Amino acid sequence: MVCSCKQSCACDKSIEVLSRLLANSYILFLKTQNIHWNVESCAFRGIHLMTEEHYNDLFAAIDVIAERIRMVGGKSPATFKEFLEIASINDNLNAETSEEMLKALLLDHKTIRDDIKNGIKTINDSDDFGTVDVLNSRLAFHEKIIWMLKSTIA
Ligand SMILES: [Fe+2]
After folding, report:
1. The whole model's pTM is what?
2. N or C: which end of the chain has fewer CB within 10 A?
3. How far is the CA of 67 from the centre of ligand 1 (A)?
4. Dist. CA 36 → ligand 1 center (Å)
5. Are 141 and 29 in contact (CB under 8 A)?
6. How large is the C-alpha radius of gyration of the chain?
7. Which of 12, 16, 8 is nearest to 85 (CA)?
8. Which DSSP category does 89 fall into?
9. Cα 146 from Cα 154, distance rounded (Å)
10. pLDDT tens, 79-121?
11. Domain 11-153: which topology?
């Protein structure tokens, strides 16, 4: 993932950070849908509706992130193979109960939150304010979901 100017530039850092966020968001979108479809619980309706809200947000964000990669001169990864190679989370749910499922989601949102924070620090010295804006917006989303999942599990 190198900027199309073919030289090492600040864009490369932005493309790397955005590409990982894109991969993480796509995988978490699918994992959230997995729970939306397969969860069984006395709280089914609440979890089913909450996960639908979450995956709809993730789906909308995927497009914003991929287009931002194009804006800063990169080529957006767009296959599951690439996503799994560069993501910080994986697509295995490894959970049986609804509580285990929500805890798995919580862990992934925390991983992505930390990734975004590190990404912002990495590119903060450049003048790519548009990318920082996208990252800040995604950070706020993941922080909100972390709070919601914690409150649901409690
Ligand atoms: Fe549905």
Report:
1. 0.93
2. C
3. 26
4. 7
5. no
6. 16
7. 16
8. S
9. 12
10. 999 999 999 999 999 999 999 999 999 999 999 999 999 999 9
11. Ferritin (1.20.1260)
